[in-house]
Amino acid sequence: MSTSTSAALDAGRGPAEHGVRTQIIEAATAHFSHYGYDKTTVSDLAKAIGFSKAYVYKFFSSKQAIGEVICANCLSQIESEVHQALQGVQAPAERLRLLFTVFVEAGLRLFLQDRRLYEIAVAAATDQWPSAQAYEGRIRQLVEDIIKDGRASGAFESTTPLEDTSRAVYQVLLPYLNPVTLPHLAPLHKEAPSALQELVLRSLESRPQ
Amino acid sequence: MSTSTSAALDAGRGPAEHGVRTQIIEAATAHFSHYGYDKTTVSDLAKAIGFSKAYVYKFFSSKQAIGEVICANCLSQIESEVHQALQGVQAPAERLRLLFTVFVEAGLRLFLQDRRLYEIAVAAATDQWPSAQAYEGRIRQLVEDIIKDGRASGAFESTTPLEDTSRAVYQVLLPYLNPVTLPHLAPLHKEAPSALQELVLRSLESRPQ
User: Fold this and answer.
1) Do B147 and B183 reside in the same domain of the chain?
2) Do residue A25 and residue A48 come from a single domain?
3) Nearest CA to A170 among B191, B178, B19?
């Protein structure tokens, strides 16, 4: 347990509760990483921290509720990577390229480096946890915003309906966002890591009528 | 059993042997459909047909070898649907549209109507059985052939390298061919069943330089 966590535990009820939640999340992340999400029960977690099962349930209603927080943390980390990469990049085509590159790379890194935590992402995507649904909604919006900017600047065509075209581009990206589908597509993606985004960009090019 | 099933069976063996193999495949298809591929053992199959396990092993070296034949039959059925749909259709854009439509529809139908046999397809795709690999290779070639024809006729652009562009188009299609990934993409695909192929076709359009 970190010093800040201990300090929070000793403070008033609000911060103390926050501290216990943090402590459970930290322990669960370590436990899930080591034993896997599927094989860990709330009892295992409680035992590992030295809490009673009932006490853990005071803070989280289920194992999924704990997984949700870990999943949301993980997804928001990927999202900040994307936003960081997009910072200062103005050209819509370049922004779309970065969007594809960073999401795919982050997903592959998560898959290859942290298989155990990956299980949580798989559960989240398969059972459509709220955190995963919200994440997908935000990315879909991000794609639409970039295409809208590209249309406004004249870089992208404006003859097709914005909503349809944005959905289609998102649909090309989606298999690389989903942790279940990504591993099945990784070998082909590796053959030519930029092929997909260049195809999408050619489809968006503005052209003389 | 359909004619294509019989045709897919090993040629060059005696008629009696051929008959026993057919009998095992028929029983296995029924058994897998009912109990699932994962839960069925070679012993279960042998018992169901009234053969000894050793006798079944004289014809097939493993459960996977039986699954391979069923899988190959199933895939070749989807392929004949595609070739039938393409018959008489000349325009490369229309051929590509049909390719996407028929493959996705056939995959969804298999998934929705025959969950138990779907398990075999999942095992084949996940463990990259030879039948699945050969199937993917043939589809990749089919995509390249259509794009080549489109370039020759002037319908598609010819400025990008054929191999790269064909791979990229196949990469857009692949998540809808793979039985593991398809169910995760089906809801978005349903929102706009032709979005993906129209995006691909826009990317292929020939345009003035």
Assistant:
1) yes
2) yes
3) B191
What's the CATH number where A24 sits?
1.10.10.60
In-domain check, residue A22: yes
B14 touches chain A (CB under 8 A): no
CB of A203 less than 8 A from some CB of B:
yes
Task: Say what the alpha-carbon torsion angle A13, A129, A190, B155 is, to the nearest 10 degrees.
Answer: -140
Share above pLDDT 90 across residues of chain B, in percent, rounded to a whole number: 61
pLDDT of residue A13: 52
Q: How far apart are CA B46 and CA B27, in angstroms?
A: 9
Q: Which domain holds residue B11?
A: 3-62
Residue A118 shares a structural domain with residue A141: yes
Instruction: Count CA within 13 A, CB hemisphere, residue B148.
Output: 8
Is B133 part of the contact surface with chain A (CB cutoff 8 Å)?
Answer: no
A125: chain B residues, CB-CB within 8 Å:
184
Are residues A124 and A184 located together in one domain of the fold? yes
ipTM of the complex: 0.85
Q: CB-CB: which of A169, A196, A202 is closest to B171?
A: A196
Q: Region B179-208: what's the mean pLDDT?
A: 92
Q: Is the pLDDT at B11 greater than 60, yes or no?
A: no
B209 occurs within a structural domain: no
Average pLDDT, integer, range B101-114: 86
Count how many domains chain A has.
Answer: 2
C-beta atoms of B202 and A164 within 8 A: no
